[in-house]
Amino acid sequence: METSEYLFDLDDQEIFSAKNSDLKAKVLRYHLMPRLNRLLKVAMQQAQAIFEVDLMEHSTISQSPGFRTDRRKGEITMDYDWCKIGLTGVRKPIWSKIHNRKTGKSPVVSYISWDLELIDQGLVATVSLPANGPFTKESYELLLQPLVRNAGSIATIMNRSHVRFYSNAVDVKATASLAERLQRVSTTREPEVVFATTMVPFPIPESKGMNIAHQLGELFLIYDTWIRAAQGLDDRVDHMLSKLDSFYDWCDKNNVATEETDEEGNDADVDLSSFPVEKTSVLPAKRYQVFQRDDWKCVSCGKDPLTHGITLHIDHITPRSKGGLNQVDNYQTLCDTCNLGKGNRDSTNIRELHGSGK
Ligand SMILES: [Zn+2]
Fold first, then answer.
1. Rounded to 5 degrees, what angle do the CA atoms 159, 160, 163 make?
2. Phi, psi (5° rounding) for residue 272?
3. pLDDT digits (tens, 9 = 90+) for 130-148
4. Distance from Cα 330 to the centre of ligand 1, integer Å
5. What is the distance in A from the centroid of ligand 1 to the CA of 340?
6. d(CA 33, CA 292)
7. How far is the CA of 356 from the centre of ligand 1 (A)?
8. Cα(119) to centroid(ligand 1), Å
9. What pTM does this model have?
10. CB-proximal residues (5 Å) to ion ligand 1
11. How far does the centroid of ligand 1 lie from the alpha carbon of residue 26, in Å?
12. Considering only CA atoms, which of 236, 240, 201 is closest in space to residue 217?
């Protein structure tokens, strides 16, 4: 049995630079996105627990890329170098207070997002308004004013969680206070506005992934503020801040760390020397070739990650300890359940049993 120690390992990082775009897209779709999706659920539970509001009231879950396939070949041909999943505003023209700068109408699709992004550098959680903004200048002011008014409290949260603020707006000194920067950005034409956690580099252990998901949960406050401002609803920043304060109090009392990186933002508790060398013996291309050959489904029960929420594992047909070779022929794709059921002593080639051994 091969079970990675990591939520996203070095194979996963390497796939971002792969040349085979169909294989790459399938790795993202069947292998990485389902894991991101799992983290998003954790983030949503965290936000729900802290703020006790209906997260989905004005939002929808959206993921990118959408993986359109070539109609003739059935292959995914676009070259992706990122994947992300999160919440955005609902796709309804109810954005009464913000306006598209070109048409003057309320935008049908919301650009406000709260999400987890996996790129070749690592994993990050962000809340953002896009660059080359679709909104009018007045819309940006409207979105940012509640944050300007509460900049002191928000800066405290950001320090606690090592969250950073980015913008492409010129004339904003990085040393200025958050209030000054936000104020400046809110009057800039088409600014990019991003609140982002410290990026966790590959390989990413489960604990770091969970940590990012929890941080995203805390950042829901900013997303919620924008969503409400966009719709002309009363702002509830005070309420959200007091909920977050109670949560931090609870963490302090129970000695729960809400942040695991040290001052330099380096991993403090990952010992790379403990990375099991044996387990890297399945080369990335080989591991993904096996999934590709088996059509991204468990060869035993036929379940796939998108339909059934399972995780795919690579399984040695003949264990290495019994002389099994490190060759594609000696591997098969199994889901969590079938992988556990099979155990290390069993060397059943399930594809052959099913008469599909190609
Ligand atoms: Zn299975």
1. 55
2. -65, -25
3. 766 667 777 888 888 999 9
4. 18
5. 9
6. 16
7. 16
8. 29
9. 0.80
10. 298, 300-301, 335, 338
11. 19
12. 240
Distance from Cα 28 to the centre of ligand 1, integer Å: 20
Give percent of the chain with pLDDT exceeding 90: 38
CA distance 157 to 245: 9
Q: Which residues contact 183 (CB under 8 A, 6 or more apart)?
A: 144, 148
Q: Rounded to an integer, what distance in angstroms lies between the CA atom of residue 312 and that of residue 127?
A: 30
Read off the DSSP letter of residue 21.
Answer: H
- DSSP SS3 for 80: coil
Q: Which of 30-34, 53-57, 180-184 has the lowest mean pLDDT?
A: 180-184
Residue 140 CA to residue 319 CA, distance in Å, equals 59
Instruction: Name the packing angle between helices 178-186 and 137-149 (round to 10°).
Output: 160
Segment (H or E) for 253: helix 237-253
Tokens 């995914």: give the residue.
Answer: 76
- Where does the pLDDT of residue 261 fall: very low under 50, low under 70, confident under 90, or very high at 90 and above? very low
Residues 36-73 have pLDDT tens digits of: 999 999 999 999 999 999 999 889 898 888 777 777 77
Q: What is the mean pLDDT of residues 215-236?
A: 91
* Spatial contact of 68 and 78, defined as CB atoms under 8 Å apart: yes
Distance 339 CA to ligand 1 centre (A): 7
Q: Report yes or no: 324 and 282 within 8 Å, Cβ to Cβ.
A: no
Q: Is the pLDDT of residue 129 over 50?
A: yes
Task: Report d(CA 230, CA 96) in Å as an integer.
Answer: 7
Q: Where are the domains of the chain?
A: 18-253, 282-353
Q: What is the pLDDT of residue 167?
A: 82
pLDDT score of 351: 76
Alpha helices in 262-313 (DSSP H): 284-293, 305-308
Q: How far is the CA of 334 from the centre of ligand 1 (A)?
A: 5
Domain 18-253 has CATH 1.10.287: no
